Amino acid sequence: MINPPEAVLAFKRIPISTGWTFKKTNNSGSEDAALPVSQFPTTIYQDLIHHGKIVDPFLDANEPKVQWVGEEAWTYSTKFSRPRVRSHDLNFELVFEGLDTHSTILVNFKEIQKTDNMYLEYRVNISKLIEEENELEIRFESTFLNGRKMEKMASTKPLFCHNGDQSRLQVRKAPYSYGWDWGPTMLTCGPWRPIYLEVFTAKVADLWFEVELSDSLSFANISARAEIIGGSYSDKVKFELFGPDGFLNAEKIQGAVTLATTNFEVESPQLWFPVGNGAQPLYTLKVHILSPAGDVLCSSTKRLGIRKLELIQRPLERAPGKTFFFQVNNIPIFCRGSNWIPADMFLPRITTKKYRTLVHLAAEGNQNMIRVWGGGIYEDNSFYDACDEFGILVWQDFMLACGSYPVTHQFQSNFEAEAMCNIKRLRHHPSMALWCGNNEDHMFADAYSQGGYDASDLDPKNWLKSNWPARIIYDKTLPAICAKLSPSIPYHPGSPWGGNPSNDTTVGDTHAWDVWMKASKQYPYQRYPELAGRFVSEFGLKAYPTYKTVLEFTTDPKECHPQSKIMDAHQKSSSKSTWARDNRTIALYLVENFKHGYKMSQYAYASMLVQAEAMQYAFAGWRRLWKGPGNEECAGAIVWQFNDAWPCISWSLIDFNLRPKYAYYSIKRAIAPLVVGVARVELETSRADEFTQVHIRKETRLQIWGSNFTNVDEKAELRIQAVDVYTGKTVWEKRQDMVLLRNQSTELFDDLLLDEATATTTVFLARIMRGDTVLARFVDWPQPLRHLDLPKPSVRVTVKLDYIHVSSPLPVKGVVFDVDDDIIMDDNCIDVIPGDDQIIHAKGLRGKSVGFTHLALAAD
């Protein structure tokens, strides 16, 4: 293996990204003309749209017109040259980071690999096949049809499958591409991640590490390991650790082995924190393979954050069950954030810029956690890099969702390879907070297993005999893999999961769908606070996207109204008995809460305002239960969902065209470092006798609380003001000194009985003040708002440079400013109270005039 120095070649990675063409695979003998791809990596839909072969499925009701694409076979091909190198000891390895999904790969017309998992990286050594000029061809089959055939041949039928065709359970293709309750059916195929040729005599196959931080946080030990392939016994391996400032912290050199290991000790390390709790310094670990002459044969680099992360599940002091909270660097964290779905139906279109824009929006919105949902993909490296940099914790589902998966040897081995591949790729990120076995598989097993699922039965042999044998994946296979490959990141069997039942609100995490879902109770959103769990990892309420986005996917102005077939087509939660079930549900929540208009702009506004109000109730109500050590009764709220995969009516906070909906801002306010909250509690104060149903007196008690996510107590003044909706006059006010205890909620006020008539016409403004500085602010309105005949006061809006100043002589609900897409608003959809003028920063506005509306105007 020892080569003369002049023949030593450094590792090369050569992209195979040019010259690609595609065509329909034709088995009849005739040949379709090959066309150049639109970009690379790519998918078949992108290429067909680019060449005008199909209409854009994101427009109008075009989706059914293009679904034939998913039942055809397609071939992608290109040519590449052998690098001109002198060494006779070279390895040539083709690397396919992602192929969607069933394909046959040929080099120079010889089959080298079959693929059946879009989540796997495939590597094929072609050293004996490579020529001076080479042809690479990938023949993609219809994964949908293959899945149907596999389903027919299966010895047992799945117990359940929600969303998408049942055949999706047989194959390792992104479940969401089969259609979900927010997305279309787009059965893509193609080389969706990069392809390249690796040329080497020696290479670093993997670099990983474990970080141990002392209890005092003053000392860190970094145990680094590198897997080496090839090379010479006289080679050396050098490890280097660079600090966040870019300067070399330490280096270690040792002889070449197949597994090189070393330790770095770091005194007084700079610690990585989630956003809102500290900074995100990143160290850099490098490893080099050195030739005897000191030449670098191959290098590998990974960034790391030094932090201690724990999932704390312990008995509560004053409530049943156990906590479920994350602790980072000895600080308990209330996790507030969103569920993440793929940011496009056509994955190669998601750029690094788009990933960073979305993750930055989450951080700017005071969110500190994203759950990567199990019906999508293991995201691109640039997503996790952005989470590292912006301080967003990642709850990572494995890609198993809403289904009873097979436990055949073929499926199990395929999935195990997938899990190991992606754990190795992602485990080094400091943002990684949790591996989670699935999305809602346990929950549906509870509903369908008819006694076959017993969480207390710990014998895997019994699981395999039950009608839900897939439990073995979550309770045996994945825990073992995670413990071996990523022991420092906690593992959780599924979401939701708390044992029996899986959606137990007193243990583990819960999905709270009793607001919204017809299959549940469809409570008014004002009841969100009572639906708390120890960690609420899903909940939400649908809304239209911004009016601009509606106009962009609707090409016929006559179809731009709430009852159009276009709106039905872009609303994906439907049933055989209802064209668009969730459009009906939106209407239900609208009619229960607001007077509103039916023009498309008014309807979109009203639906987004309902969503914003609902999310405020949820986040604020559950945050109130973060009561300090021993009483962390709710430790997280992760809303469904953050983003969209196409332009649609959905639960998202950010629509497909990256425009924030109003809920983005209401949540941002509800999870700010300091907040004040108001709750009205209706009490029966007297009755004529125990039998009457008429002579009863009811009054409303006012409760005010505050919450502090910072690490210091906050001394300030609470100011409460009661304002009449119709006159704008202050009818009552109070001031009191207060202290918001660090990292918990604090009850501040519980008093003031209002009679029924006064309660229904009074708005409360609660503020936490330090001198003239407002630290926190909340406006509480009588519910439901539809009972108010809201006046239309002369709202005054002035613009100076990048600031919008707004005032009103009467209380105004839901003031929304309309600005160009390149202007970044730090707040929107606000309530304005007389004497409490609001100033909003609009970066990039530069004095331009702005349009605005509010609830009373949108009701005309």
TrEMBL record:
GO terms for molecular function: beta-mannosidase activity. This is Beta-mannosidase B. Keywords: Carbohydrate metabolism, Glycosidase, Hydrolase, Polysaccharide degradation. It comes from Hyphodiscus hymeniophilus. GO terms for biological process: glycoprotein catabolic process; polysaccharide catabolic process. Residues 20-193 form the Beta-mannosidase-like galactose-binding domain. Its EC number is 3.2.1.25. It catalyses: Hydrolysis of terminal, non-reducing beta-D-mannose residues in beta-D-mannosides. Residues 701-787 form the Mannosidase Ig/CBM-like domain. Residues 203-307 form the Glycoside hydrolase family 2 immunoglobulin-like beta-sandwich domain. It comes from the Eukaryota. It holds the Pfam family Glyco_hydro_2_N2. Gene3D superfamilies: Galactose-binding domain-like, Glycosidases, Immunoglobulins. Pathway: Glycan metabolism; N-glycan degradation. Belongs to the glycosyl hydrolase 2 family. Beta-mannosidase B subfamily.
